[in-house]
Structure formats: structure tokens, C-alpha cells
Amino acid sequence: MLPSPDTLESVGLVLVVEDEPEIAEVLEGYLRREGFRTERASDGRQALNLVRAARPDLVLLDIMLPEMDGLEVLRRIRSEGHTPVILLTARTEDLDKLLGLELGADDYVTKPFSPREVVARVKAVLRRAVPAEPSRPILRVGPLEIDSEKVVARLEGVRLELTPTEFRLLETLARTPGKAFTRAELLEAALPESDALERVVDVHLKNLRKKLEALGGGGLLETVRGVGYRLWLEA
Ligand code: CA
Fold first, then answer.
1. 82-130 pLDDT, tens per residue?
2. What distance in angstroms lies between residue 64's CA and the mean position of ligand 1's atoms?
3. Facing residues of 110 across strands?
4. CA-to-CA distance for 9 and 164, rounded, in angstroms?
5. Whole-prediction pTM
6. 45-93 confidence digits (pLDDT tens)
7. CA of residue 36 to ligand 1 center, whole Å
8. 83 C-alpha to center of ligand 1: Å?
9. From ligand 1's centre to the CA of 29, what distance in Å?
10. Cα–chain-centroid distance for residue 37?
11. Angle between the 115-129 and 21-33 helix axes, to the nearest 10 degrees?
12. Domain residues of the chain, as ranges?
């Protein structure tokens, strides 16, 4: 049976931002074989234009790019919306990866990578962005309201502008308020297919805390020394 147009649509459009044509070609080939549609940009400016014009479901973003580097592209994508982004990085320094996550990337893959691995990460990030379970009830914890179906979190009724990874972390913490989660537990919950280091959790949670703080909820996210983090609701 042929998949319905609906199913095809739901697989999604991936924008591959990569200035090395051989790498871009291989990635596009693997993605298409898995049913994704793809667009390609070979420099930073073109990437931004395509994000605006084609509205991809996910962006695979190389860091080393001509015109405008990937981190700057990421900064601008984030200033305009919540399109999931996976960074491709040839550099071995953790700094770049961590900076990318500070800027709101959802995951990263280090070059040289296997295209199969990249496709697995793309699927994992998209699964988090669009949850498969159709009707999970809205979770209400203190001032927080978490709608897993729509991937929307609100604090005192005000929408929090979260990346998919930040959303999953908050959702995990909020499902068991008061429980101290280890970084490993949080990583497993929010980035199950990633081989990201545990301290990557710290970066995502730092971003999440900043966003909670901006709406007056800074005290909600508590660091538990020697363990990890918990959602803390004052009685
Ligand atoms: Ca490059």
C-alpha cells in the first residue's frame, strides 16, 4: 500500500546546510531514502533565506561555513523561531559544541560521521518535536502547564519559548516534581539517541533556567549538589 499523502507530509523537510558538496550529497541521499524531502544551502546567508522561505522541519547545520558561520546562523534562526537544529561540527573542541547548545541547538554530530547516524538523530529530534502519542493530558504542576501534545509549556499562563530539548527536560522534571534527577537520567529522557556528554544537560538546563527566570520562575529549577536537578515547588 502506498503511504497516504498525509504520511509523506509528516516525514518532513530537512534543510542541509553544508558547503562541502560531497558531504551534502551523501546526507541528502540518505535522508531521501528515508522519505524526507531535502533542501540544500551551501553558505550561511542562503541557509537563513531558506529557513525563512521553505520553513524546514529541521536544519542540519555545519558550523564552518562561508559568508556567515553556523553559530551565527543558529543565533538568527533562534531569534526567529524554534525550528529544531542539529549541528555538524568538524572541530573537536567541546567549546564549539557547547556554545552551539547555549545558542539553542538540539543536538550535534561530530565529523566524520556516519550518514546513518545522522539520519537516526534527525528522526529522534523530530520525534521529540512532534510526539507520536495522540492525546496525553495537559500536565499542571504548580504555576507550570505542560501540553505534551502541542509541545507548549506555560508559566502562570505565559508561554515559554523553549527548544524541543528544553521542553523534554522540563517535561521530565515536571512529571515527578521534587525528585532529584541525575544528569544521566535527564540525558536519557531528553536526548535518548545522542552520545552527548552529561554536562550538555547543564547547558540546556542553564538555558531553561534563564527562560523560567525571565518569567519570574527562576526558583523552580533547583540544582541538587552531587546529584543533578529537580523541579522544586514551594508549598
Ligand atoms: Ca564546512
1. 899 999 987 665 666 667 777 888 888 888 889 999 999 999 888 877 6
2. 4
3. 89
4. 20
5. 0.65
6. 999 999 999 999 999 999 989 989 999 999 999 988 889 999 998 766 5
7. 22
8. 21
9. 18
10. 19
11. 60
12. 5-129, 139-231
Around Cβ 16, how many Cβ atoms within 10 Å? Answer: 27
What is the 8-class DSSP label of residue 193?
A: T
Residues 135 and 149: beta-carbon distance below 8 Å: yes
Distance (Å) from CA 18 to ligand 1 centroid: 6
- Taking the centre of ligand 1 as the mean of its atom positions, its distance from the CA of residue 62, in whole angstroms, is 6
- Residue 10 — pLDDT band, cuts 50, 70, 90? low
Before 137, cis peptide (omega within 30)? no
Structural domain 139-231, CATH architecture: Orthogonal Bundle (1.10)
CATH number of 5-129: 3.40.50.2300
3-class secondary-structure state, position 209: helix
Give me ligand 1 centre to Cα 89, in Å: 8
